[in-house]
Amino acid sequence: MEECPIAAACVSVAKEVFSIHNLRFGQLEAVVSAVEKQDSMIVLPTGAGKSRCFQLVPSVLKRLGRESGLVIVIQPLIALLRAQVKELEGLGLSAGFDADVEDRDPAILKKARSSNLDFCKTFTPLLPPSPLA
Amino acid sequence: MRPARYLLFFLSHKRAKQTNKQTIQQKSLRPLVYLCPETLMTPRWAAFLKDRGSAISLFVVDEFHGIKDLAAFRPDYSAFGNLRTFRPEVPFMLLSGTASPSLKEHVIQSLGLREPRMIEDAIDRPLLFWRLRDSPAHLDAPTLKAIDNVLAQKEGKVMIFSKTIGEAVRNWRLLKRRETTSKTALFHSRNTDTKKEAVIKSAMSGECRVICCTSALGAVSEFPSSVVERTWKNQTNENQRGLTFLPFVSSSSMGFPAPLQTCCSKEGAPGETNRKLKSGACN
Lengths: 133, 283
What we know:
The structure holds 2 protein chains of 2 kinds. Chain A is mainly alpha-helical. Helix content of chain A is 48%, strand content 10%. Chain A starts with a helix and ends in an 11-residue tail after the last helix. Chain B is 36% helix and 14% strand. Chain B starts with 12 loop residues before the first helix and ends with a helix. Chain B has helices at residues 13-24, 37-40, 43-52, 66-69, 81-86, 101-111, 141-152, 165-176, 193-205, 258-262, 270-282; strands spanning 32-35, 56-61, 92-96, 117-120, 132-134, 157-161, 184-187, 210-213, 226-230. In chain B, strands 5-9-6-8-7 form a 5-stranded parallel β-sheet, sandwiched between helices. A two-stranded parallel ribbon of chain B has the order 2-3. Chain B is α/β, with parallel strands linked by helices. At the A-B interface, helix 2, strand 1, helix 3, helix 4 and strand 2 of A face helix 1, strand 1, helix 2, helix 3 and strand 2 of B. Strand 3 of chain A pairs parallel with strand 1 (32-35) of chain B.
């Protein structure tokens, strides 16, 4: 895999952009999958470097001379989302986030609140601004 | 305050709006764009996917176990199958730290993944020592003793989850008055972002070793050597089954939610870890 141009680009981007000298388990495979347009499912423990798998992709595509489109990352926790963007900006990479749901239909929560209070209680982890949590 | 905003986690409305403005006012979109599931399903992003979707290289779904676990409450999280319909040529990269075989199969089918490359390693968090205890809403003498015993251990930390902010504040006040727990922090959703960040930094640095919190604090696994107290009794409830978003506040008939079972080392199965702590100074 070391001789593969994608792998070589990945190793060099990791070193130059992220100061990573040794890619961790799975990172190379994940980047190669993305560049080759193959779906991938990555289950690794916390701290194993899962986020780097996709953060490397835009720079690797650019290094390979391919058109680098958007990498859209769906992240459920805004705290993590913000932290990652901040970290990437610190590394000189361009990243942004959009967490605005202003034009969403608010009916979901309204329904939850009006129809079933237990439902709201059960899911208090998802309702931080409420008095419950 | 708009109801839908309740769905967002951890960030004040003001801050979310400000950062969003900064992002979408960029003349050219940035190569990495982070979205929460609800945002992706907004009309402006739907229009983007339809009109300019060819400019997308990769869809990444972080914490993909939520596609099943959160489907009941965050339906947008399980609607990503539509992305494949919109842009079948764009590959998916799914990430999780905890996923059972059945959950993986469910996600592969619901998103219509095409023979995904599976990249997996043992979910082993050897630094995480924990024990789940149910304790009274008001911390009683045995629980306080157990907390002191944990703190007597090197790097031992305690998180006390309460069901409401009021209970968390009461516990925090009680602990602050005690000599051994005077540096107790308080974390709940009403804290400002600055305050939340300060509490997390303090806990990470070891300056603060006890946190009274509500379920707003979800990143338990980031704090090694922790003991989790839960100040309400474990209840088996159909509605709670499968809610693995915050494993330490969800329940199961076994007392140990599934994600916790998978985060112990092979040598220390849940029961064994539990015994290890019990055999120490915890009780």
